[in-house]
Amino acid sequence: NSSGDSGLEDLPFGRENTWRFNLSLAVLAGSIAVSSVAAAAGVRYSLTPLAPSLTPSAQMRDMNDRGEVVGTDGTGGSFLWNGQLIDLDTLIDPASPVSRATGINDRSDIVGNYTDGQGVSRNFLLSDGAVIPIQVIADRAAFPMAINNRRQVVGWAHDQQGQRHGFIWRR
Fold first, then answer.
1. Residue 88 φ/ψ, nearest 5 degrees
2. I want to staple 144 with a disulfide (CB 3.0 to 4.6 A). Which of 21, 28, 111, 157 is the partner?
């Protein structure tokens, strides 16, 4: 269904749950198969600590094919790790008490949300150092979750009745 906004597509919530459940099963089945094959082939893995300065409650949210990782630092801020830890709050909004980086693509575009200095929740696309607002629909709390290499953003939002809907935002 189209929401009327040329850059936004509203997805029914039921399909999102089914997709997420099926994807989880596929990932689980794939992980078991890959682990078994890797063990039989003698494949070894290495563990790379991302940033020892992050708190134990930090959450890694997404990683692109270049190995860059975005997440929340456990103290209300967002980060990018690309071999070094970069505080994204200074780029997004230095006055923000809370931010969440939730997705990154292979162009290093980052999506997420933050609370501005006036307490208003805002969504963002951080692209080439510029913060681009992600407008979903007025009066809807929205949460961008991932971005692909065509700069299409997916996430979910609540409508005025409190129902949850998936969305696709296109720049």
1. -80, -20
2. 111
| Contact indicator for 78, 100 with CB cutoff of 8 Å | yes
- Integer Cα distance of 166 and 157 in angstroms: 6
Under a CB-based contact definition with an 8 Å cutoff, are residues 2 and 9 in contact?
yes
Residues 145 and 155 sit within 8 Å (Cβ to Cβ)? yes
pTM of the model: 0.73
> 155 near 164, Cβ under 8 Å?
no
Rounded Cα–Cα distance for residues 72 and 104 (Å): 13
Mean per-residue pLDDT of the chain? 79
pLDDT in tens, 12-57: 544 444 444 444 444 444 444 555 555 666 667 777 777 667 788 8
Would you state the torsion angle of the CA atoms of residues 37, 42, 43, 48, taken in this order, to the nearest 10 degrees?
130
Can you tell me which residue has the tokens 């906004």? 5
Are 31 and 38 contacting, i.e. CB atoms less than 8 angstroms apart? no
CB–CB of 140/149 below 8 Å?
A: no
